[in-house]
Amino acid sequence: MSTSRAAIPAQLGTPIGVFDSGIGGLSILRALRALMPNEDYVYYADTAYAPYGEREEVFVMERAQALTRELVERLHIKALVVACNTATAAAIAQLRAQWPGLTIVGVEPALKPAAALSRTKRVGVLATRGTLSSEKFSLLKASLEGQGQGQADFVLQPCDGLAAAIEAGDSRRSDALLAQYIGALGPLGWHEGQIDTLVLGCTHYAFAMDAVQRIAGPQVRVLETGEPVARHTQRLLGDAGLLQPRADGGAMHLRCSGSPAMLEALRAATKRWIP
Ligand code: DGL
Fold it and tell me: Which of 202, 229, 254, 256 is catalytic?
């Protein structure tokens, strides 16, 4: 499948590059734009190769490298946000080693805030199989697991097929999968032994937030990562002197590795989710 060669708009200066397997990373782009509306952005959806979550780690790593190369060499990005938990887990270390001068931000499931916020100290994690089986995730979990302040027990649930259903806009299927996966976590609630906090460990799942909350119930706190990632990105850009000084609103450019119909679907999703 060929990469979309849509012309690069002239007003796109040195943008922030953001990528995901599909529309999921739009939940991160939405938070970035809300916090830094004057920046230029290029969003790259790797729809020809989505979903990533059930692929081999080496495949996801190679896709992340290919997308980063294109964003750096053709679109001249000043910073990269890997708006995908699966790709962050598989590739962020290699990307940082390969592009040492580039500011690179990744996303990871919000285990730390969840452990701090949970009262029952029992946290459910919904994520892709790739993320949950990665070494990066295991290390994060091990650092926060157990008794004590800021620690918790984590119940992990791989959600095969969920990102694909959300990507396809198939809410009947995504609701059914969510009911199955949330049901498999065990008892939810604020009593001892129950899960009172749920982590959405895949950027696609943020677009199913309402369904998650409805299925899990009002007593469960649901966390996604858009806002903290945006704040972290702003901090890094500020430290590197890379924040856009202009104050007249930034440009946004969409690309995708899939068919023209997929690019159209991405445009429609962007219109829907990013005001
Ligand atoms: N949105 C991605 C993530 O955060 C990947 C979903 C997928 O492609 O399976 O993990």
Answer: 202
